[in-house]
Design brief:
alpha+beta; 5-stranded mixed sheet; Glutaredoxin
Length: 249
């Protein structure tokens, strides 16, 4: 290289231009690669990979917060009349505080059900009642009715009832609640007596008080192995949370 050519390459503006070009080409290659990744995922019917990455990061952030103690988590699950799904011996423990009149609980309900259908062997779900009576006039009656359905010993009937309560959330009057119990096949004499005496009320109140003590101030609120997750959640978010949790246990 001639002396003039060497001097030109030593010019800081030339060097800066070359570096800028390299960075631009690298960024372009990265962009093209990400677009190709996105297109491949769409063609394969997979979720948006960028959204998946963001959910994974959000899951890691939530699970980095201090969880409840093992003793507190055990108390959340210590409710003989609570509805449950999944494997009682699973290492992944999910607790959901529910208000049957809450629109956000309604939004999450089918997502949680779909999630538990996928994870019947490796996740255990416990439902705790958290009827917010100051906002929802029928929430407590619905919680009592659901517990009275559950008290007859057929969990399958309870889950059908659970789904009906959210499906017809705008109709949760006393007569409506009774008609749903009849629809799922409950013995109405036993149901009527349970509702009349409000037999599950003590369990519901205990769960409400316990929820308030561990930071529940709205519904739905989830606890995943003791980590609090407030608000509505969808299937993909639950999957991201559990995937992150499995890395930690």
């Amino acid at each position: 290289m001639s002396s003039a050519g060497w001097q030109r390459w030593k010019n800081p503006w030339v060097i800066a231009g070359v570096l800028l070009g390299v960075v631009t080409l690298f960024g372009l290659a990265l962009f093209v690669g990400n677009v190709a990744r996105y297109v491949k995922a769409i063609r394969a019917g997979e979720p948006n990979p960028y959204a998946k990455d963001r959910m994974a990061a959000a899951a890691a952030q939530i699970l980095s917060q201090p969880p409840l103690s093992p003793e507190q988590l055990a108390k959340l699950e210590d409710d003989p009349g609570a509805p449950r799904l999944g494997n009682p011996k699973a290492n992944i423990r999910l607790v959901e505080f529910v208000d049957y009149e809450c629109p956000f609980c309604r939004r999450s309900a089918p997502e949680v059900r779909a999630f538990m259908a996928r994870h019947a062997d490796d996740v255990h779900l416990t439902i705790r009642d958290y009827p917010i009576e100051s906002v929802h006039d029928h929430a407590l009656d619905a919680a009592i009715a659901a517990r009275c359905v559950m008290a007859q010993g057929d969990a399958g009937r309870y889950w059908k009832y659970h789904d009906l309560l959210f499906q017809y959330q705008e109709r949760l009057g006393v007569a409506d609640l009774r008609s749903y119990a009849e629809r799922v096949g409950n013995d109405l004499a036993s149901y009527d007596e349970c509702v009349r005496t409000r037999a599950p009320l003590a369990e519901i109140r205990a769960g409400y008080d316990l929820g308030g003590a561990v930071g529940v101030n709205g519904t739905p609120t989830f606890f995943l192995n003791g980590h609090r997750i407030p608000g509505a959640i969808n299937l993909e978010q639950l999957e991201a949370m559990v995937a992150e949790m499995k890395k930690r246990i």
